[in-house]
Amino acid sequence: MSEPHKATTHEEDHTGPIKNPKQLLVAVFFSFVIPVFIIIGLVYFVNSGHKPAAGSVNAEKAVAERIQKVGSVAILDANREMKSGPDAYKAQCAACHDNGVAGAPKFGDAGVWAARIKTGYDALLNSALKGKGNMGAQGGGELSDYEIGRAVVHMVNSAGGKFAEPAKPEAPAAQ
After folding, report:
1. 43 Cβ partners below 8 Å, 6+ apart?
2. Domain ranges in the chain?
3. Using one digit for the tens of pLDDT, what is the confidence trace for 128-149?
């Protein structure tokens, strides 16, 4: 009917996969020699990426440019003469607003400026200082916020607006 149950020895349960010296040598080889070669290959791979790019003449300068500080501090003379509205316009705004570059409203175009004039001086100054659309922020640049305000008034008044010149900021008290 059925096969008689064979008696197994417990000795077979306690043996490993290595049964002769040749298998031992193969196991040692794969356990130690191959990982050494893999590590050497990885080290070579990682170090090969630090070579200077083709055409890079001055590697130190290239590295210094990549790790330079993000910002810089410019110290301006607080007692310098403030630019008038037309001068500030020519220095900062004329490049785009004279020709209508990147959607900038053209200087003196009453039709384009009419809707902007209705928003008021504060809204226009805020847009000029913080940027709007394609126009970058002008605040904190070479000109003071007061000078940017004078340029805004000059542009608006040339397009038919009736904004008053902004009040000059008070000088800080000497300590």
Report:
1. none
2. 85-158
3. 888 887 787 776 567 888 888 8
The CA-CA-CA angle for residues 162, 89, 121, to 5°, reads: 35
Rounded to 5 degrees, what are φ and ψ at 121?
Answer: -60, -45
Asked whether the beta carbons of 99 and 106 are under 8 A apart, the reply is yes
Identify the DSSP state of 132. B
State whether residue 135 is helix, strand or coil: strand
In angstroms, rounded to a whole number, what is the distance separating the alpha carbons of residues 16 and 3? 29
CA–CA distance, 149 with 126 (Å, rounded to integer)? 9
**Predicted TM-score (pTM) above 0.70:** no
- Residue 12 pLDDT greater than 80, yes or no: no
Match 């940017």 to its residue by tokens.
Answer: 148
* Alpha-carbon torsion (121, 154, 89, 108), positive or negative: positive
Q: Per-residue pLDDT tens for 51-106?
A: 656 556 777 887 888 888 877 776 767 677 888 888 888 887 888 888 887 788 88
Look at domain 85-158 and name its CATH class. Answer: mainly alpha
Whole-number Å distance between alpha carbons of 84 and 168: 11
